[in-house]
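Internal tracking record. Fields below are filled automatically when a chain is submitted to the structure queue. Please do not edit lines marked as system-generated. If the sequence contains nonstandard residues, flag them in the REMARKS field before resubmitting.
Queue: standard
Priority: normal
Entity type: single polypeptide chain
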Amino acid sequence: MYMKIQYLGTAAAEGIPAVFCDCRTCRKAVELGGKNIRTRSQALIDDMLLVDLPPDSYYHFIHNNIHSAAIAALLVTHSHQDHFYPAEFILRAEPYAHMHHVPVLSVYGNAKVHALYKVELALQDDSLNLNSRVCFHEIKEFETFVTPGRYVVTPLLANHDKTENCLLYLIEKNGKTIFYSNDTGVYPETTWECLKGRHIDLVSFDCTCMMKKDGANHMGLPDNIEMKERLYREGCVDDNTKFIITHFSHNYHLMHDELDAQGQRYGFITAYDGMSLEV
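SYSTEM-GENERATED OUTPUT FOLLOWS
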């Protein structure tokens, strides 16, 4: 058995080209098109477990021919609007959506994500039956849970917005493990303690800053290289593990082929919108 991950979006908050931007990088991305066009970050595992709900979700579903009503679970990394756009939930219920024989959507997120969800419902909920279509589960770092579809998920602590406990996710099924780790800088030591000795088949790294080192809020390729080396030292990965970089910002200027050439030097696969991998 295997697990599949599809990268529906691979940009940071502003997208590439960035919303309202007229910089040289964004103009070049539009000119070249293809893999240089990046929407806000989102991933889908085995067509049923979604990671994050950015404003581009509707486009992702249509563009990739995804039957969104059949998605059973959503993992939310943190509350920033490019990762969590709760107004969309209203449209899952009557009179906006007519759904038959589809699962309740189980949503998992931290306390701040839950608070935003409740505020959005209080402001906008004119649906007839949303509570029968969406079920929110507030989760905490390092407390493992099981989603519909029997994915065993352990949320780990990210190093990102210091006003909330942003989360990374270890996702396990059928003896395979995916580590989805953006948005984050260098992992906190409490996260390393939980990772130590756990085998990972695919690591998805935050590479917002491309070739620039950060580590305090996001990562660039130099940070990814350091994290990869430590994952080897901690016994988490081996030469069969796939290492992906994603979540790119236009502020660091490289086109896809340029970044891919740099990533390949260090054993990284550069994600692009729509890319699928199996482990």
